[in-house]
Design brief:
Shape: globular
Bound molecules: zinc ion
Distance between the termini: 22 Å
Largest sheet: 9 strands, parallel
CATH architecture: Alpha-Beta Barrel
Number of strands: 11
Number of helices: 14
Order of helices and strands: EHHHHEHEHEHEEEHEHEHEHHEHH
Helix content: 40-55%
Number of domains: 1
CATH topology: TIM Barrel
CATH superfamily: Metal-dependent hydrolases
Structural class: alpha/beta
Strand content: 5-15%
């Protein structure tokens, strides 16, 4: 099994009406036929039920995401929020979409909310042949906590199925974020304390490094970076979206896991749309960097961010859909990674983190 820690499924359903019960190719065909603006704004889709199944992607962290209106660019021209009230409404709608997806297609999708859900899910995947139809497990991850109006509503989000929270996307009232540096605020500290009480995973992706360092000091619970690449391999950019070495070290010291994003611009900062796609080996370089830095294969995994603002045009050559993430296995093996290492990177590292918070 492969676990992907970051896919913007609900956002695409809400903004573009993408129907992920179909294959990525079928969705592309339909969007071309209907003149959908999704391919132009968000790229051609990389996701679809048959593709998850083919790639043995048994568990996905499905996000709740919407951009703030002040940061809306062309690719985020869909639903956006001006304040916490609007953010709350959009995030609620997206959570409902995951519930509807699982309720209406229980043969294809299943929300994982408890340890019993997880155990049953893994048992079914182990027991059935690789190509046999079975549901994809979704664990809900809130990307950007603007939808949380006050910390005391966190228990309602937990009840609704959210299990991981990344406080930031852009900067917000909680902390500095991508493109908007800054520390953890008093409101951010209060949010973290309440998240810790309920038992969420803290996702530091998109937090400004200064805020991430403070959060890693403050948060006693489980910590990860669901989708973030090492800054050291992206020397041409001074973007605060990537992980400095000391933040990687701090995450590893807390037994954290980092999901590498196979997005060309996050693999080589000089890459621009229209350039030749990068070799898949680039993804292995980023995985290998974390392993070398932290001394083992325990702290790195995949967080594809697929359909999160880019499509098939912007991922390395050889990836046509999410199913092709499996092509990383032989490349890792060629670099000397054992089967156990590959299983850790593909699934066991994320599994360890999910198990820590599912009861
Ligand atoms: Zn993101």
């Amino acid at each position: 099994m492969l676990i992907d820690a970051h896919e913007d499924i609900a956002w695409n359903m809400l903004a573009y009406g993408r129907d992920y019960t179909h294959s990525a190719h079928e969705i592309r065909r339909q969007e071309a036929k209907n003149g959908s603006r999704a391919p132009e704004l968000n790229g051609n889709t990389l996701l679809g039920y048959p593709d998850w199944l083919r790639g043995q992607v048994g568990i996905v962290f499905g996000t709740l995401f919407a951009p703030p209106k002040r940061r809306q660019t062309r690719k985020w021209e869909g639903p956006a929020y001006a304040d916490a009230e609007e953010a709350h409404r959009l995030y609620r709608q997206e959570l409902d979409l995951y519930h509807r997806l699982a309720d209406e297609h229980p043969d294809q999708f299943r929300l994982l909310r408890t340890r019993a859900d997880l155990n049953a899910h893994i048992a079914e995947w182990k027991q059935k042949p690789a190509d046999a139809p079975k549901p994809i497990g979704i664990v809900v991850l809130m990307e950007g906590a603007e939808g949380v109006r006050t910390p005391d509503e966190l228990s309602q989000w937990w009840e609704g199925g959210v299990r991981l929270i990344g406080p930031a996307w852009a900067g917000n009232r909680f902390c500095g974020g991508t493109g908007e540096p800054g520390p953890l605020t008093a409101e951010g500290s209060a949010l973290l304390a309440a998240m810790d009480d309920v038992g969420f995973v803290l996702d530091i992706s998109h937090m400004d490094p200064q805020a991430a360092r403070q959060a890693l000091e403050a948060y006693a619970g489980t910590v990860i970076a669901s989708h973030a690449n090492p800054a050291a391999l992206l020397p041409e950019t001074d973007s605060n979206r990537f992980l400095p070495d000391d933040v990687i070290d701090a995450l590893a010291a807390r037994d954290g896991v980092i999901g590498i994003v196979p997005f060309n611009r996050f693999l080589d900062a000089t890459w621009k749309p229209g350039d030749p796609r990068l070799p898949l080996e680039k993804v292995v370089e980023h995985i290998d960097y974390i392993c070398q830095r932290t001394g083992s294969s325990r702290h790195v995994a995949i967080g594809s961010d697929f359909d999160g603002g880019f499509g098939v045009e912007s991922v390395p050559a050889g990836i046509d859909t999410v199913a092709d993430l499996q092509k990383l296995a032989p490349l890792l093996a060629a670099r000397g990674y054992t089967n156990d290492d590959i299983a850790a990177i593909f699934a066991h590292n994320w599994l360890r983190k999910i198990k820590a918070i599912l009861h």
